[in-house]
Amino acid sequence: MESAVTFISTPSQCQYLPARVWQLRYELVLNLRPGDYMQRLRQGWRRFGYVMFRPECPSCRMCQPLRVPVTTFRPNSSQRRAWKRNQGEVTVRVGAPSLSPDRLDLWDRFHRHGHETKGWRADVTDDPGMLLENPFPIEEWTYYVGDRLIAVAYVDALPEGLSAIYCYYDPTEGARSPGTFNILSLLASALQRGLPHVYLGYYVAGCRSMEYKRKFRPTEVLGPDGTWEAFGTGTK
């Protein structure tokens, strides 16, 4: 695997913690293979499309890569409720990513809701099409109530785990906890496939959009010495 381009971004306002400054290292790898990315994922890298990235902030280490060991995961009470609430009502389909009017509408409503309730940037003009260009095939998980699309998630199926790339959903379906149900579905699928981990990306304490990640227990975090270790204590 050879990087076509590698660079470090200019320090700028953090999109997770606006009072802090972030800086990212990027690598563009055109021939990235699942096994190569698996190795980088274990080292704390993430990717969108052909571009891998990881934080290299000048004075902050709040971004913590998280993964869930599949065989030891035990859902808490709220996660069990979310699973029960959706079982029998929500149909999950796994296939190749695609674009459609209902996906685009869902994307727009999800991000508009995030701007209005969580302070997300309002000037983002991307659409889910940016997630369809990848160096190797990925999975698209779609969630339906009847014929109505309520959530879409993109997943890397790798040699040693599933990696959650991105999930967006109908903000009017908050009672179903669709983000939580998506992770629970990934954990169930990883167990069935015999994969040891589900990678959740970065957890940033104090970032409202990422609070749900710390609730999947037991969870492992990538330590400063490059080894994965137990993360925190359980929570209800």
3D structure, described in words:
The protein has 236 residues and is of the alpha+beta class. The protein has one domain (5-230): Aminopeptidase, CATH 3.40.630. Helix content is 22%, strand content 32%. The chain is built from 4 helices and 14 strands. The strands form 3 sheets. An 8-stranded mixed beta sheet has the order 8-9-10-11-12-7-13-14, sandwiched between helices. Strands 1-4-6-5 form a 4-stranded antiparallel beta sheet, with no helix packed on it. Helix 2 crosses helix 4. The longest helix has 18 residues, at 101-118. It is globular. The mean pLDDT is 91.
Concise description?
With 236 residues, this protein is of the alpha+beta class. The chain is 22% helix and 32% strand. The chain has a single domain, classed as Aminopeptidase, CATH 3.40.630.
> Quick check: average pLDDT?
91
Question: How large is the share of residues in beta strands?
Answer: 25-35%
Largest sheet report: 8 strands, mixed
Structural class: alpha+beta
Distance between the termini: 42 Å
Q: Write down how many β-strands occur, each being a DSSP E stretch of 2 or more residues.
A: 14
For the CA atoms, what is the radius of gyration? Answer: 17 Å
- The CATH top-level class label: Alpha Beta
Q: Give the overall shape, derived from the CA principal axes.
A: globular
Question: How many structural domains does the protein architecture include?
Answer: 1
The low-confidence runs, each spanning 5 or more residues with pLDDT under 50, are none
Instruction: Name the strands of the widest sheet in spatial order.
Output: 8-9-10-11-12-7-13-14
Query: What's the tally of helices?
Result: 4
Order of helices and strands: EEEEHEEEHEHEEEHEEE
The level of helicity is 10-25%
CATH topology name, in short, is: Aminopeptidase
Under the CATH scheme, the architecture is 3-Layer(aba) Sandwich
